[in-house]
Amino acid sequence: MLTITLKPGKEKSLLRRHPWIFPTAIEHIEGKPEERNRAGATAVVRAASGQFLARAAHSPHSQIRARVWTFSENEAVDHALIKRRVRQAIDYRAAAVRDTDAIRLIFGEADGFPGLVVDWYGGVAGFLVCQFQSAGVEAWKVPLVQALIAETGCRNVYERSDASVREREGMPLVTGVLAGDEPGPEVPVTENGVRYAVDIKNGHKTGFYIDQRDNRALVMAHAAGREVLNCFCYTGGFSLAALKGGASSVVSIDSSGEALAIGKRNVALNGFDGDKAEWWDADVFKTLRTLREQGRQFDLIVLDPPKFASSPAHAERAARAYKDINLLGFQLLRPGGLLFTYSCSGAISADLFQKIVAGAANDARVDARIVKRLSAGADHPMTTAFPEGEYLKGLMLCKP
Ligand code: SAH
Q1: Residue 332 host element (H or E)
Q2: Residue 368 near residue 397 (C-beta atoms within 8 A)
Q3: 234 lines ligand 1 (CB under 6 A)
Q4: Is the pLDDT of residue 310 over 90?
Q5: What pLDDT does residue 112 have?
Q6: Fewest CB within 10 angstroms: 23, 74, 89, 334, which?
Q7: Residue 5: what are its φ and ψ, rounded to 5°?
Q8: Residues 130, 154, 233, 344: which is the catalytic one?
């Protein structure tokens, strides 16, 4: 039995139900040495007064030293908890997510599984793809996989625990089959009537940017008759949505040749006119400058770059990069054109992002109108106690 006792005053964030405990908050840890050293062991967390605060997974090598499973003294951390929470996560998505078989089934802390991501592609005959990013969920891997199979009816489970955050937890990077069959190179999914091939084994994250579903639907709804430029297109998520929505042409740019190859195949998979779609293997920063020099203009531009700020320390440099591409975006837009611009950096708040974009509009001498504030879909729930869960933010803007 492991007990973590906090320093006086350090219980405040837990009383607000924030689920992370940092080493600086800990007064002492009691328990047998083998329990204290076991990554993912369940600990009772107490305030300096002795008051029960939570049950948490202890992670001896991580900067997040413990992550809360439950704030309820009556709730045990056991197989039943795992099964119950998996069921709740599935029921929530069944009610909140429509018209897709690419779903984030478990989104870490927001679903009561700190450090766990599970994406579900292709329904019962498809694949569950898991990322175990903390010692707590890693320790419960077997019962978790069993519960996922039992509750979804999908028997194929693949692990993509190759995100670098695992190294910060002191865990090795691993990928491979956890149950059932090995995924083929292109697992098909259908989102809002568009078919996409997902490369589960080698693609980014678990293969597909599920979080942009609602934003792809928005682009689809506004694409008719427009010349579209999709920057950082990956496998063409927004490009395909624009073609489905009747775009007159779509130029898609990415520096990954493999991603572009899938994008091209996605056009064929949907039977769209390949002549309307150009795929450029290039650097976005350079290419946008070239397009500006050439005087090219577009009616709809998507800017969905990778995470420029991996931590708050990188926020300033990231802000310059966001401003740079957004300035170019405004300049390349025709009057009446639409800009869909995003940041998936947790270290850049929605407020700050809007300020950066405002600075870019000002430098471009554009009185841009904010049509809509954008975020990830409902299967990436945000909770009031855990603001860190909000990472994707975006703006839909109109150039008058
Ligand atoms: N919009 C995509 C996801 C974008 S992920 C979707 O909805 O699916 C970010 C992409 O940016 C990656 O595919 C990566 O290969 C690409 N990338 C990163 N830096 C780049 C650069 N400087 N120029 C072009 N592409 C870049």
Answers
A1: helix 315-332
A2: yes
A3: yes
A4: no
A5: 98
A6: 74
A7: -105, 130
A8: 344
Pocket perturbation via mutation, ligand 1, pick of 254, 302, 341 by most ligand atoms within 8 A of CB: 254
Residue 199, token pair as written in the block: 């490369």
CATH 2.30.130.10 fits 2-70, yes or no: yes
* Ligand 1 neighbour 215 (Cβ under 6 A): no
- pLDDT tens digits, one per residue of 169-179: 889 999 999 99
Ligand 1 center to 284 CA (angstroms): 9
Verify whether residue 231 is a known catalytic residue: no
161, 257, 335 from 235: Cα distances, Å: 21, 10, 29
Architecture of domain 209-398: 3-Layer(aba) Sandwich (3.40)
- Ligand 1, atom 7, residue with closest C-alpha: 237
Atom of ligand 1 nearest to the CA of 344: 5
Residue 134 confidence (pLDDT): 96
As a whole number, the mean pLDDT across the chain is: 97
In the chain, domain spans? 2-70, 79-179, 209-398
Looking from the CA of residue 234, the nearest atom of ligand 1 is 13
- Give the residue from 97, 149, 139, 95 showing the smallest Cα distance to 118: 149
User: Which strands, in side-by-side order, build the sheet including 393-398?
Assistant: 277-281, 249-254, 227-231, 298-303, 333-343, 393-398, 369-375
Is residue 168 over pLDDT 90? Answer: no
- pLDDT given at position 377: 97
The predicted model gives 204-222 an average pLDDT of 98
